[in-house]
Specification:
- Keywords: Membrane, Transmembrane, Transmembrane helix.
- The protein has 685 residues and is an alpha/beta fold.
- It has two domains: 170 residues, HUPs (Rossmann fold); 385 residues, Spore Coat Polysaccharide Biosynthesis Protein SpsA, Chain A.
- 33% of the residues lie in helices and 11% in strands.
- The chain is built from 21 helices and 19 strands.
- Strand 2, helix 6 and strand 3 form a beta-alpha-beta unit.
Length: 685
């Protein structure tokens, strides 16, 4: 029986699914070409184009983890069947996808640490060499440590960690897995930055893969520094990509030497700020040779040559020779090259030899000439190490110097405390500044001492200390403080020229000290500056001063103190690993825990030192700087009032010295009192 309903148009008699495609086409047509105002049509078309482009760029790199049904090896050779392929069989050059990277990069959002450090490698040999350092740095918890595998091998991260003996306790964030990863060997999810078909990929595809995956990881984690193994034993494509990507993202690269695990483990104690400054720090060594000490120069230069500079650029070297130099020293210098040759490294000449043509007639001339011998290119990163020719250096001196320099000057925590630190000494002084008695270093019962070393109850231990008296035999001075000393000396010599009778004062130091040290003592006492001195239970030193008596020194000693004994020469610290030599598991003490000594050797607090510095500065302003009123001394320019502000003439404001001012300027202590105090400075987090 025919259906009773009549269909007035042909479309009504068809099933609804016959009209789906036509209805959908009609919808798109009406959406795109709806005849509303023209500006609304253009906006719709533009919106669709933007949406399509967004979806294309979002999903073209496949950053989703693979599902169980994925078959990613069908388009390339099976690594289980073929194993590692040689260069001739690396033919795959298809699209680059990272099937095991996306999960962790998506999960990292909202969980970023501020102090990220990234280890990365393509070679399993290099990765195995760096894993102990990455785990140790993560254990120390000053940085959030990431590790990215970007090479050819298809070994899972679980298998890689087991083969390297790391089964638990390594809190490194493996990429792509941005979680606390304790070598969960039961998981079957591979998490890394390697692309599909990495084993069979061409070098050009792997180079592009490393460039893209490293860029993704850097953009998400934003590390302060990228740490790699010696690039000479890394894959060539990896070295090229890392160099290009870190340059484009302006991320510093720290390249480890081959023996880093054995000799450079102290690097794991540094924070991200120190690691970022690794390549920026520049040290210039300056040696001023007196006429009677030119023969001892050979011993010093040999110890410099035999020191270990690991992956750092060796310091520049400037030697100021006297007017008369002995023959053996001249012949040695003819064949001496600096820096010492290193395998695979191109040597660039950084040796400067200077010879004085005349003797200085005054102390001021000698001081000015020596302080002019160095000026930092960048006062925040360029520093100067002054060495006496009587010094001999430990092979590990540069390890300690760079370790302490990065920790106390360039770390995030160091920025808060280094404003009063002039530099770092490498040896202990033998006497107090006025040579009145042998110097006795302070002891401590604080948490600086090594808790793992058994000692009698309530016993004191040796400790590094801060002293207001700077060193002269082997000491590094920060670039900003050296520029400040030059400005201070310029004004100080002006004061002597303008008023020679009142601006000159009796020396507060021993006559055997170099002349420029007297002005550095004045600056340190007026500004409350201190220098860091090493002092270890082992009794060794990073620099020892040999006590050969020159004819003039011997004559002075016999005339002044017939029974004087030369200071004891401390043995040089030997070994290959600095972290095994330093106490407390190789950790440098917190700045707030280090004892402070005043200029005359009394143990004081930071507040007491500041109070005494303010009193000394006030007296200095009156007696030397020619200032009439009181003012807070915030810089060395506040210590001098030498010029009339209107016409530039010298202001003769001669004042009678007060008893308090004179006492502050000339006070000395013959018997230092070692009292226990606390400094109250910022601490590391």
């Amino acid at each position: 029986m025919p259906h009773s309903r009549l269909y007035y148009i042909p479309e009504e008699g068809k099933r609804s699914d016959d009209r789906i495609s036509r209805d959908w086409s009609s919808f798109i047509y009406s959406f795109l070409f709806w005849r509303g105002p023209s500006r609304f049509r253009r906006r719709r078309i533009l919106l669709i184009v933007i949406t399509v482009l967004f979806l294309y760029f979002l999903w073209t790199p496949d950053l989703d983890p693979p599902t169980s049904g994925d078959s990613i090896t069908s388009r390339g050779p099976s690594t289980e069947e073929q194993g590692d392929l040689d260069g001739e069989n690396r033919y795959y050059n298809g699209p680059i996808k990272f099937p095991r990277l996306g999960y962790t990069l998506h999960s990292v959002r909202g969980n970023l640490w501020r102090n990220n450090v990234l280890f990365t490698s393509a070679s399993l040999e290099s990765a195995s060499a760096m894993v102990p350092m990455a785990c140790e740095m993560a254990r120390y918890r000053r940085n959030a440590v990431h590790f990215a595998l970007l090479g050819r091998s298809d070994m899972s991260i679980d298998e890689f960690l087991v083969k390297n003996g790391i089964e638990n306790g390594c809190d490194v964030r493996w990429h792509g897995e941005f979680i606390s990863f304790n070598c969960c060997v039961e998981t079957d999810r591979e998490v890394d930055g390697r692309p599909e078909h990495s084993v069979s990929s061409t070098d050009s595809r792997m180079e592009a893969s490393v460039f893209e995956s490293l860029g993704l990881i850097i953009s998400i984690t934003n590390p302060w520094v990228v740490i790699v193994d010696d690039l000479e034993r890394e894959e060539a494509f990896f070295a090229r990509s890392v160099s290009a990507k870190t340059q484009s993202t302006r991320k510093p690269v720290l390249e480890l030497p081959r023996n880093a695990v054995e000799n450079l483990m102290w690097l794991t104690r540094l924070d991200c700020g120190s690691l970022r400054a690794w390549n920026e720090v520049n040290v210039e060594v300056v040696i001023q040779v007196p006429s009677e000490e030119s023969g001892s120069l050979i011993r010093l230069l040999k110890s410099l040559e035999n020191a270990d500079y690991f992956s750092s650029t060796p310091p520049g070297l400037t030697v100021e020779l006297p007017q008369s130099v002995d023959g053996p020293t001249l012949r040695f210098l003819e064949n001496f090259a600096w820096p010492p040759p290193r395998p695979g490294k191109q040597r660039s000449g950084r040796l400067k030899l200077r010879r004085r043509m005349r003797l200085d007639t005054t102390t001021e001339e000698s001081s000015l000439r020596f302080i002019e011998s160095f000026f930092p290119a960048d006062r925040s990163t360029s520093h100067v190490l002054f060495l006496s020719p009587r010094v001999e250096l430990s092979p590990l001196f540069y390890h300690y110097l760079k370790y302490a320099l990065l920790e106390y000057k360039h770390s995030e925590y160091g920025f808060q405390v280094s404003n009063k630190l002039t530099g770092i000494a490498l040896n202990l002084p033998s006497t107090y500044p006025n040579a009145s008695s042998p110097f006795i270093p302070p002891l401590t019962r604080s948490r600086i001492q090594d808790p793992s070393r058994p000692t009698p109850e309530n016993s004191d231990q040796a400790t590094p200390f801060l002293w207001q008296a700077p060193g002269s035999d082997a000491a590094l001075y920060f670039g900003d403080k050296w520029v400040e000393l030059q400005d201070f000396l310029s004004n100080r010599l002006d004061a002597i020229r303008k008023s020679p009778t009142t601006a000159k004062r009796p020396k507060s130091t021993d006559s055997n000290h170099t002349p420029w040290m007297e002005y550095l003592y004045e600056l340190s006492r007026a500004m409350g500056y201190v220098m860091l001195y090493p002092n270890w239970e082992s009794g060794g030193s990073f620099a020892t001063v040999h006590n050969e008596l020159t004819p003039q020194t011997a004559q002075n000693a016999l005339a002044d103190q017939p029974s004087v004994r030369p200071p004891r020469e401390l043995p040089l610290i030997s070994g290959t690993a600095l972290i095994d030599i330093l106490p407390v598991d190789g950790d440098l003490p917190d700045f707030s825990d280090i004892p402070i000594l005043s200029f005359d050797g009394r143990r004081v607090s930071r507040s007491t030192l500041d109070t005494e510095a303010a009193a000394y500065a006030a007296a200095f302003r009156r007696e030397i700087g020619r200032c009439t009123g009181s003012a807070e001394v915030r810089s060395i320019w506040d210590l001098f009032c030498l010029w009339d502000r209107e016409d530039g003439d010298w202001v003769d404001t001669t004042l009678e010295p007060t008893s308090d001012a004179t006492a502050a300027l000339t006070s000395k202590s013959e018997d230092p009192v070692m009292s226990s105090t606390t400094s109250g400075l910022p601490t590391r987090s």
